[in-house]
Amino acid sequence: MKKAAIYKIDKWNPEREIIKIAAEAIVKGKLVAFPTETVYGLGANALDESAVRGIFSAKGRPCDNPLIVHVANVESAEKIAHTTSKALRLMERFWPGPLTLVMKAKDIVPKATRGGLETVAVRMPAHPVALALIEKSGVPIAAPSANTSGRPSPTDAGVVYDDLGCCVDVILDTGPTDVGVESTVIDVTQEKVVLLRPGGLPVEAIEEFGEEVMLPDELGAGRAEDVKRKSPGTRYRHYAPRCRVVLWREGDDWPLERDEAVGYMGIKRPPLDISEKVILFDSLEHYARGLFMAMRYLEKKGVKVIVADYPVKEGLGLAIRDRLYRASSAEFDENPHDVVK
Fold first, then answer.
1. Domain residue extents for the chain
2. CATH of domain 244-327
3. Following DSSP, what letter does each residue of 65-132 receive, concatenated?
4. Taking the domain 5-173, which CATH number applies?
5. What is the mean pLDDT of the chain?
6. Partners of 181 in beta bridges
7. Is 65 a known ligand-binding residue?
8. Where along the chain is ATP bound (predicted)?
């Protein structure tokens, strides 16, 4: 059975020989897992349909779930997408960084990469190794998170190997990622910016830049679902450990009876001593960074249920809420993506 070759690489000064090995793999149509500032991505040549299909096969990912295409500069984005003045303004302000723009695709992008859509999701990662790999490869790199589809996203190379070690050719390892949740995805093909997936860039930053952010549901029921399809991570159960996830908000009744097989994670302390398997974070930033790692840790500890603190609806809290909501079996009578205006 094939096993991935893992290369430890300096985040700030990537070794040229290692980047060359990974880039040659991309050019040959192989799969390379690499770090970004958000999570680890499973990369292939975005313009090679056969290579892209390899991503879907390795992850067990539905073929109608579009991929994000990673580029090293704005010029590369303009080669694969019809960029508008609004899109260019946002790129200039927030790239490189955890912001993905959904734009009208050019024909050069295979439909497999786009999930069969007429749009393409594009971003420029803020990570020296990712940028070096894209530049050396000479092609845009399609890359969803480097994990089995539906599982918590990987924030370190060990998780990538555990999930996909037999399917990937090369894994580049720079240690844990900085942000911990995927990029924010916005649709810039509408008159106003539409939030498709909250993520590593707070919505407030986009609004402070002067762009009003809408939710898909504000477009009307007839258009909302079509717009949501343009983003990965919005139509299927995602980010879920093998154990059940239950959401809890401070002030609510505790959702479970006392059970030694319960784990807890969040910022707020649980209202009762449920077990020793409690993971506390001291900020939203740390909660986001450790979210997926905490899920996998508690899963390995054998808990049957994870009770997760459902955080405030601001900053990175919106992205955390989204990931928890999609991973959970509980539902609240509210939209987890509601943006505080």
1. 5-173, 244-327
2. 3.40.50
3. SPPEEE-SSHHHHHHHEE--HHHHHHHHHH-SSSEEEEEEEPTTS-HHHHTT-SEEEEE--S-HHHHH
4. 3.90.870.10
5. 91
6. none
7. yes
8. 61, 65, 119, 145, 153, 197, 239
Check whether 46 is labelled as a binding-site residue. Answer: no
For the entire predicted model, the pTM comes to: 0.93
CA distance 129 to 12: 7
Q: Is 40 annotated as a binding residue?
A: no
Residue 13 among known ligand-binding residues:
no
The two tokens of residue 141 are: 């790199």
The pLDDT value recorded for residue 339 is 42
**Cα 5 from chain centre:** 23
Q: Is 143 labelled a binding residue?
A: yes
> Annotation-wise, does 149 bind a ligand?
no
Residue 50, annotated ligand binder?
no
* Structure confidence by residue, pLDDT tens digits, 234-277: 655 678 899 999 999 988 988 887 666 889 999 998 887 766 68
- Residue 333: per-residue pLDDT: 46
- pLDDT tens string 37-85: 999 999 999 999 999 999 999 999 999 999 999 999 999 999 999 999 9
Q: In what order do the strands lie in the sheet with 244-248?
A: 244-248, 305-309, 262-266, 278-280
First to last CA, the chain: 53
User: In the prediction, which pLDDT does 232 show?
Assistant: 72
61 annotated ligand-binding residue: yes
- For 222, the token pair is 């007839």
**Side chain identity, residue 243:** C
C-alpha distances in angstroms, 88 versus 18, 68, 77, 93, 212?
Answer: 32, 17, 10, 9, 16
